[in-house]
Amino acid sequence: MDKFFYQLALLGYGIAMVGFFIYLLRPQHSVSRAATLVLLSGFFFHSIGFIISWIDLGYFPFITVKSSLSFVAWFLVIVYIMFGWRLAILGTFLSPLIVGLMLLSRVVPSIAEPRPPIKVLWLSLHIGFSLIGDALLALAFCVGIMYLVQERHIKTKKLGGLYQRLPSLTLLDDINHKALIWGFSMLTLGLILGAIYAQWVRGHYFTWDPKEVWSVITWLVYAILIHERLAVGWRGRRAAIISIIGFMFLLFTFFGVNYLLKSYHVFK
Amino acid sequence: MKDKRIVLIGVNHKTAPVELRERLAATDNDEILRRLTELPSVNEAFFLSTCNRVEIITTTEDEPEITIKEIKDFLAHYNQVDLNEFKKSIYVYLDTEAVKHLFLVASSLDSMVIGEPQILGQIKDAYRRSTKQRAVGPILNRLLHKAFSVAKRVRTETNLSRYAVSVSYAAVELAKKIFGDLHGKHILLIGAGEMAELAAHHLLGNGVRDIVVANRTLERAVELSKEFNGKPISLTEISDYLAWTDIVISSTGAPHFIIYYDDIKKVMRQRKNRPIFFIDIAVPRDIDPKLNQLDNVYLYDIDDLQGIVETNKHIREKEAKKAERIVEEEAIKFKWWLETLEAVPIIVLLKQKLEKIRKKELEKTFKHLKHLSDEDKEAIDAMTSAMVKKILHDPVTFLKKREERPKIDLYLDVARKLFNLDEIDRD
User: Fold this and answer.
1) Based on the domain organization, do A139 and A15 belong to the same domain?
2) Which of A135, A267, B3, B185 has its Cα between 20 and 30 A from that of B273?
């Protein structure tokens, strides 16, 4: 039943993505508004799907790889609403990410959902904050790309392509900054909660489990970036690049660990 | 009911050489406007005078030829120019053509540089003057308001004004793409010169408040800084302000660089890498081009800026076609509106006639039916009112309907004849 709504959501996001690409060619307010409305209707169906799954399972449905991908996509729509309200072009860059995550979610083999894990509330908080952090860092990644594209235009003095559509460098850098700060905070919270949970369930705050190790590595990368931003002024181009690199670490932590290394984090 | 005609007479940079335009340009707009309204055949009047054009728009109920002659004679006499001299430079547009011309002008499609943003403000000023003098009436009021909304449509629906038309505008557009909001940004102006000062003015117009002016001679710096409400400094103090400045406009006659790569590289750390934008209008260049390689440093010289203006010209020419289509569309809509104007007096006359009849009959009836209470009288009053309203509803709607456009004059005429409206006093 919930599957049906997830399909609808994917359809909505897909159409919205097409709409946002059309917006590149026809930058009219009506086009971006239509795309946003379709995106929101996809979001609506997606939410219903979550509610149904939640009721079915008894806990929030984002514990498996499949469902967590879906959750990040869902949260990215919220992110778009928060930042993209006056920045429709953000939709052009975020929507492929959203659609991509939903498609991956479909493609990933589904496994039988585990029985409600112990202290499921704490586990949900750990996973929830981590995923929200991931989504925000995904935003930083997107905006980092937008920044580099726009900066390339201005530096090389070739003002065609996306130059007119993209906003100012300062705005992009600001969004990148906010996304980083919030994303990193959520990630930190998620890590701490994860450690607390591990203590309860396995008796240790930290083991050398690959997922935990790579999570900490990723956390360190972002920590360095944020420190340099605030202390030294690594703004603009450098911040954009590190946002992109950090996201690569994030992706590896999320996927690579699951499929390339052995970890108890992986439900088999 | 006489037909109201719109008569537009003007000269512009395409039709008249600058000497003639100078002679016709007004020093006292109000005086000219007053004299225009005093011309016998002129009803409403509007007068626009800029360095590139003079446009006079009037409405008349007489034959347009009469008004045209009156205005031409007036212009010749007032400016003491021989009519034969400028007969060839004047263009005349009537009715819908006049409307279309005004719309084209307001949308900057008739300007020397298509897409330039100043003409709309100039027309608005001229309109304000005309309203103050009560020179405009219902037709020109509507026409000018429509012109403003057409200009707005062109601005929002095409990219005509999005692409900078001059070096100074191009510089400001770039600044906006780098910094976003320009409020609170700091400018350093080095040297002087028309383009540099224009750029500074545009930036101030976009919210910049703090400007520091540097010049080889402190006297000149003081002079310029007064103009911008800024602070004067000498060339040697520039390095003190590099950490503070966001935008540097440089235009000196110096044969060497004023700003060097190493100076800026050092200062970026001090600025915590906040972006800085250099506009180098000077020839030979004031600023080391290597600077552009630094992170968060952006440097554009005069060639770069002119390149942008050239590219923009092509884009604007394409957008101009879209804009012209919008103007055509709106001119036709205005033409329709002009035609409904004729319907309104007829409808008013119709309503007045029926109301007169109603009142008269009520009076007669009430005189005979003395036993009626006030309440009864009110009820009958209301009933007759409602009846008249309902009877009129269909005919009035029909007369106002747009689809009958080509035959409307016929129907209006028939209505006038059917109800014998011509003999009624308007009051």
Assistant:
1) no
2) A135
Check whether the bond before B284 is cis (ω within 30° of 0).
yes
Q: Do B273 and A232 touch (CB under 8 A)?
A: yes
Active site residues per annotation of B: 51
A162 half-sphere exposure, CB direction, 13 A CA radius = 19
Nearest to B298 among A154, A164, A235 (CB): A154
Given A116, A144, A172, which residue is the final one in a domain?
A116
Distances (CA, A) of B204 to A137, B183, B192, B200, B242: 37, 9, 16, 6, 19
CATH of region B167-309: 3.40.50.720
Contact B273 A163 (CB under 8 A): no
pLDDT in tens, chain B (427 residues): 457 789 999 999 888 888 888 777 777 888 889 899 999 999 899 999 988 899 999 998 888 899 999 999 888 888 887 778 778 888 999 999 999 999 999 999 998 888 888 899 999 999 999 999 889 888 899 899 999 999 999 988 888 877 777 888 889 999 999 999 899 999 999 998 888 888 898 898 888 889 999 998 888 889 888 988 899 998 889 989 999 999 999 999 888 898 999 989 989 888 888 899 999 998 888 899 999 999 899 999 999 998 888 888 888 888 889 899 999 999 998 887 777 667 777 788 889 899 999 999 999 998 888 888 889 889 999 999 999 999 999 988 888 775 555 666 677 777 777 888 766 544 3
Do the chains contact at B177 and A154, CB–CB below 8 Å? yes
Q: How many other C-beta atoms can be found within 10 angstroms of the C-beta atom of residue A163? A: 14
Based on the fold, state whether residues A105 and A164 are members of the same structural domain.
no
A233 to chain B: closest CA residue: B272
Give the structural domain span for A149.
117-268
**Structure letter (DSSP) for residue B287:** B
* Spatial separation of the C-alpha atoms in residues B228 and B231, rounded to whole Å: 9
Q: Give the architecture (CATH level 2) of B5-157.
A: 2-Layer Sandwich (3.30)
A36 and A140: one domain? no
Kindly report the nearest CA distance between residue B232 and chain A, in angstroms.
29
> B306 — contact with chain A (CB < 8 Å)?
no
Cβ pair B177:A234 closer than 8 A: no
Q: Is B189 helix (H, G, I), strand (E, B) or coil?
A: strand
Q: Is B419 on the interface with A (CB under 8 A)?
A: no
Q: Do A128 and A255 lie in a common domain?
A: yes
- Looking at A116, A139, A155, the residue that finishes a domain is A116
